Amino acid sequence: MTTDPINPEMLDRLAEVAVRVGLNLQEGQDLVMTAPSSALPFVRRIAHHAYRAGAGLVTPLISDEAVTLARFREGSDASFDRAAGWLYNGMAEAFGANAARMAVVGDNPMMLSAEDPEKVARANKANSLAYRPAMEKIVTFKINWNLTAYPNPAWAQLVFPDLPQAEATRRLAEAIFAASRITGEDPVADWAAHNAELRKRTDWLNGHRFSALHFTGPGTDLTVGLADGHEWNGGAAPAQNGVICNPNIPTEEVFTTPHARRVEGTVRATKPLSHQGTLIEDIAVRFEGGRIVEASASKGEKVLLKVLDSDEGARRLGEVALVPHSSPISQSGLLFYNTLFDENAACHIALGQCYSKCFVDGAKLSPEEVAAKGGNSSVIHIDWMIGSDEIDIDGIAEDGTHTPVFRKGEWA
Ligand code: ZN
Ligand code: ZN
């Protein structure tokens, strides 16, 4: 019996699964880990399991909500165009030398909601640009990496606004543990079975080689052309350094690269998007020639429009992903206000950067070749949910024939 709202035994299990399944950390491999200060108990368990797995050196990089807010409240105007490029260059250097990457998510999703959107956008843009050398090693899957979540009390309070904080934290922790598939007898075996199931779906889609997907539902009539030579991915996958890892815990999606210039029609978001401290609700957009030409939101529209103007690629798609409505995260009925969870509750699309691993022999393609095949490039990658139990999806083959892929939010 424990009074700790975050069961320490389960937290330790999650740390072990993050290291063994998520990263599949190799003997002698270094690990660079980022985390919010609230997640320190988890960071310590991850370090424990990483060294047990033979880690060379574990380097934690800690951010802190109060320090971030101090910048927005007291920082000079010039502060908002600054970023720690020196640190990101160091991270890129570490990844270049085969260090693995772990990011613990769990910041208060509303941390910046009361701050000036102009400053938030400038700070994000400066940060995205400076982070690019490190980000490139991630999007091209040079090294094994993993995202895992820690139930920050401020985050829990947002998910369960009517519960006292300790109870909210306990509920969020339980939801994270269940979604992360660590509550069974043998979580490592459960993950192997789950990865095999996702593999069946990607094999089926890769066998069909659809040239486009057609989404229909309330407010949605969208044709997403797929990139030339695209490949569907999902679950465990080999990084370029040969390590088979699970980049996201949890994960329920299979995903690929859309064609940046072949997306047409309208689409309405089915869940709010929590973007770096702002909640954007009821997003509706229209695409023409792959580019968003009209966009609106009932809340957070200013932030959305700023995001779309981040750069040329920000108005085009970099990912399309399929998730059945019956996924455990969807069935939990919770809105997590966090992409790692919410993207695994519904089919989604992402604005911005594509993943080069979502091409046949993607690792061998130059950025120019990726672009020629229709792969998008941008400093942003933002997933938003367009799936529900009312969405139908058809696969359209090169010769124009339609094959049912999803009916009423489930695999057809
Ligand atoms: Zn996704
Ligand atoms: Zn994504």
List the SSEs and their pairings:
Layout: H1 8-23, E1 31-36, H2 40-52, E2 58-63, H3 65-74, H4 85-96, E3 100-105, H5 117-139, E4 145-149, H6 153-159, H7 165-179, H8 187-208, E5 212-217, E6 220-226, E7 233-234, E8 237-238, E9 244-245, E10 254-256, E11 258-268, E12 273-275, E13 278-280, E14 284-288, E15 291-296, H9 301-308, E16 317-322, H10 328-331, H11 339-342, E17 348-352, H12 367-372, E18 381-385, E19 392-396, E20 402-407, E21 410-411
Parallel strand pairs: 1-2, 1-3, 3-4
Antiparallel strand pairs: 5-6, 5-19, 6-11, 7-10, 8-9, 10-16, 11-14, 12-13, 14-15, 16-17, 17-18, 19-20, 20-21
Helix pairs in contact: 1-2, 4-5, 6-7
The chain binds zinc ion (2 copies).
One zinc ion binds at residues 253, 255, 319, 321, 343, 348, 383.
